[in-house]
């Protein structure tokens, strides 16, 4: 019971706090976006709207998970041995990651003057494969009987996280090359002459580098502490 409290319930509770905090920040940013960019492309506004709905669903699922492990478990300790129903969140997380990485893939294609289509195609295939793996994990969570069967699904989990990590490495490398290294090398084109452009480039690079770092942290945590739920804490920063 002590192990369940410190290595299962505690990380889930922390992850829920992180999720709610990030959701509040996300809600503020999305409202700001819709207020300031009312004339933005319809497809972008639809994507932001979809992301808001999926983030809302993910937050509600995470809160339900915390309630189950901190309240319901007091009257029914077998909750810790069952497959957590919030694992259906993979069905939400998969498309979210696909859209986020897909946007960066489109961006790489654009900033390369549409010449990097082979790289963009490879990244898109990896993203679709990762989304399919997320759906498979959802199917497993809906049909498995015990959390002990998590050992059987580990290869799929590692493959899913590995696809995300590989894609983030490719995206970060491509953005770094096309927006920072290549212009500096050629001393032409979009070569960091404008202060605003420089800030946009740096922020863009930092954002995806942060995503790459989080992806690596999640993978390392689940490999090193696969018997616990601590991987859920860094995993919440992926949104």
From TrEMBL:
Q: Which InterPro entries match?
A: DUF6534
A Pfam family annotated for this chain is DUF6534
Membrane-spanning segments = 12-35, 42-67, 87-104, 116-137, 157-179, 200-224
Domain DUF6534 intervals: 165-231
In which domain of life is the source organism classified? Eukaryota
Q: Which keywords, in A-to-Z order, does the entry hold?
A: Membrane, Transmembrane, Transmembrane helix
Protein name as it appears in the record: DUF6534 domain-containing protein
């Amino acid at each position: 019971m002590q192990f369940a409290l410190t290595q299962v319930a505690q990380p889930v509770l922390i992850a829920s706090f992180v999720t709610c905090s990030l959701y509040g920040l996300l809600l503020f940013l999305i409202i700001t976006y819709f207020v300031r960019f009312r004339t933005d492309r319809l497809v972008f506004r639809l994507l932001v709207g979809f992301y808001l709905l999926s983030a809302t669903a993910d937050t509600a699922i995470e809160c339900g998970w915390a309630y189950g492990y901190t309240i319901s478990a007091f009257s029914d300790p077998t909750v810790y041995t069952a497959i957590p129903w919030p694992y259906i969140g993979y069905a939400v997380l998969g498309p979210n990651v696909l859209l986020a990485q897909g946007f960066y893939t489109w961006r790489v294609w654009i900033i390369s003057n549409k010449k990097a289509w082979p790289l963009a195609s490879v990244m898109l295939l990896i993203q679709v494969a990762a989304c399919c793996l997320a759906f498979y994990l959802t199917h497993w969570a809906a049909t498995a009987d015990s959390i002990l069967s998590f050992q059987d699904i580990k290869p799929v989990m590692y493959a899913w996280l590995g696809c995300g990590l590989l894609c983030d490495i490719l995206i970060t490398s491509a953005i770094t090359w096309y927006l920072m290294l290549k212009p500096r090398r050629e001393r032409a084109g979009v070569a960091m002459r404008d202060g605003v452009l420089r800030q946009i480039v740096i922020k863009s690079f930092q954002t995806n580098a942060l995503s790459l770092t989080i992806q690596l942290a999640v993978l390392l945590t689940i490999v090193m502490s696969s018997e616990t739920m601590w991987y859920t804490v860094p995993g919440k920063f992926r949104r």
